[in-house]
Each structure stands twice: as structure tokens, then as C-alpha cells.
Write a structure and sequence with these properties.
3 strands; about 120 residues; Arc Repressor Mutant, subunit A; 3 helices; single chain; alpha+beta
Length: about 120
């Protein structure tokens, strides 16, 4: 299985408003509930770490003259995301290998002197 993330030029990687991010995130996680407060706390922390950038948009009459805050992933954020996706892919490959015969059921580490603690059911 191969994971991929969108490059910065992708339409999905343009400036995003918190409510839009929340809607898309809620769709991705399904039954797990993510509140706006949790999202904004996370966005703030990612921005403090330099993984996101934000900018304030123009005030709109629809919002009572208040401006929207837009977020965009930074180059450092893209590098961190790529490393995370690579790590996840390697973990998935190990999981698939471990759970595919003939490896299934092997629960001890193989070393030259290792022996199973008790017979393995075949």
C-alpha cells in the first residue's frame, strides 16, 4: 500500500479556513468527533512549530466585519509530513509482512540461539 500527500501546488494545499479544515477532517475521521476547539488548538501548535503559516483575510460583511484566518502548510510542514508518511508506510509494510503466512504466529525474535518458548501451533 502506498500513501501519498498532495504537493503544495495542488488545489487541496491552498489557503484553508478553519471551518473548511474542520469539515474535511470530520469527513476523513468518520465516527470520531473532532471539535473546533481541538482543531484550533492543534492549528495554533503547528503554527508555533513552524509547520503551518497563517494570514488574516479581508473583513467580510457576512461575518459582521470580522476577518477570516487562513492556514497553509509551510515547507517545513511538507517535509515533516513526508517523513511521517514514509514512516507510516514502512510500519504498514512490516505489519503486512508480519501478518502474512509463513510469518503469522511467530512471536519470538529469531537469533542464532533463539528457540520458541513453547511449540508453535501449526
Amino acid at each position: 500500500m502506498k500513501f501519498s500527500c498532495s504537493p503544495p501546488s495542488s488545489p487541496r494545499m491552498k489557503d484553508a479556513y478553519g471551518t473548511t479544515i474542520h469539515a474535511e477532517l470530520s469527513e476523513l475521521v468518520g465516527s470520531r468527533r473532532v471539535t473546533l476547539q481541538q482543531l484550533y488548538t492543534t492549528l495554533c501548535r503547528l503554527e508555533e512549530k513552524g509547520l503551518l503559516r497563517s494570514k488574516i483575510g479581508m473583513p467580510t460583511p457576512v461575518r459582521g466585519g470580522r476577518a477570516k484566518k487562513f492556514y497553509r502548510i509551510s515547507p517545513a510542514g511538507m517535509r515533516a509530513l513526508a517523513l511521517s508518511m514514509e514512516s507510516m508506510e514502512k510500519s504498514l509494510q512490516v505489519w503486512v509482512w508480519w501478518n502474512t503466512p509463513p510469518h503469522r504466529g511467530i512471536y519470538w525474535l529469531r537469533t542464532p540461539k533463539s528457540k520458541p518458548p513453547h511449540p508453535v501451533n501449526k
